[in-house]
Design brief:
By secondary structure, the protein is α/β, with parallel strands linked by helices. It has a single domain (3-201), classed as P-loop containing nucleotide triphosphate hydrolases (Rossmann fold, 3-Layer(aba) Sandwich), CATH 3.40.50. It contains seven helices and nine strands, in the order ααβαβαββαβαβαβββ. The chain has helices at 12-19, 27-34, 53-66, 79-92, 122-130, 156-169, 185-192, and strands at 43-46, 71-76, 98-101, 117-121, 139-144, 174-179, 195-198, 209-212, 215-218. Helix 6 (156-169) links the parallel strand 5 (139-144) and strand 6 (174-179). The longest helix has 14 residues, at 53-66. The protein is globular, with a radius of gyration of 18 Å.
């Protein structure tokens, strides 16, 4: 699918920005668009690493911001990853206010009300919810990266609580869940009440094989 196929579905400023970086969507991105990405549908996207999941989140989040629906919050498991995404979006969208909230301070961080996009961790977002940070009810798009960590014994409970609370608080929010390693995707999609998007395409072919006695046998 070419980018110009969605020209009438996204904000003009957003289209001009994207046209400087991409020409054609990857398979998982096309499938997500076909599954209602630009129509506010909740999606669980299960595709390989580097298959284009970040752009899927970007398409919904940035378009919702430009259309004045509300803020975008991007949740990642690691502070380093939050910082990486923050730098990427700050560079690509100089006209938007991008914030990084990963500090250990347990507070409401009221200053976040001024920002369009917020990158954070599930633990920090949990703290912000408990402290009734005023920006919470302005969220239009919630992106949860590495959602398979729901199954992690140490971090999973916090992530589950955050998702559950926000789904109760924000009925009109669009929820996007991203993962490369979910094993029970259909069950998870049902629990999350999200359309399932699956695809096996990856930019670099992955071959599997067995190494024995100095030789690799591929299968």
């Amino acid at each position: 699918m070419k980018l110009n196929k969605v020209k009438d579905s996204i904000d003009k400023r957003f289209y001009e920005n994207l046209s400087k970086r991409i020409v054609e969507f990857r398979p998982s991105q096309k499938k997500s668009i076909d599954s209602g990405l630009l129509k506010g549908e909740n999606l669980l996207v299960c595709t390989p690493t580097a298959s284009g999941k970040t752009l899927i989140a970007e398409l919904a989040m940035i378009n919702n911001i430009y259309n004045k629906k509300g803020k975008g919050v991007y949740v990642v498991p690691l502070k380093a990853l939050a910082s990486e995404k923050y730098k990427e979006f700050k560079k690509n969208y100089p006209d938007l206010k991008v914030a990084l909230s990963i500090g250990d301070t347990d507070s409401s961080d009221t200053y976040l009300e001024k920002y369009d996009i917020i990158f954070t961790t599930s633990e920090k977002l949990d703290s912000l919810i408990r402290h009734r940070s005023p920006f919470i009810f302005s969220i239009a798009t919630l992106v949860v990266d590495e959602v398979h960590l729901l199954n992690d014994p140490s971090r999973g409970p916090t992530l589950e609580v955050v998702i559950t609370l926000l789904r109760q608080m924000l009925k009109k929010c669009q929820y996007l869940y991203l993962s490369a390693t979910v094993g029970n995707e259909k069950t998870l999609a049902g629990w999350l009440e999200a359309n399932l998007v699956e695809d096996s395409w990856r930019p670099v072919r992955l071959d599997k094989g067995i190494y024995r006695d100095g030789k690799i046998t591929f299968y």
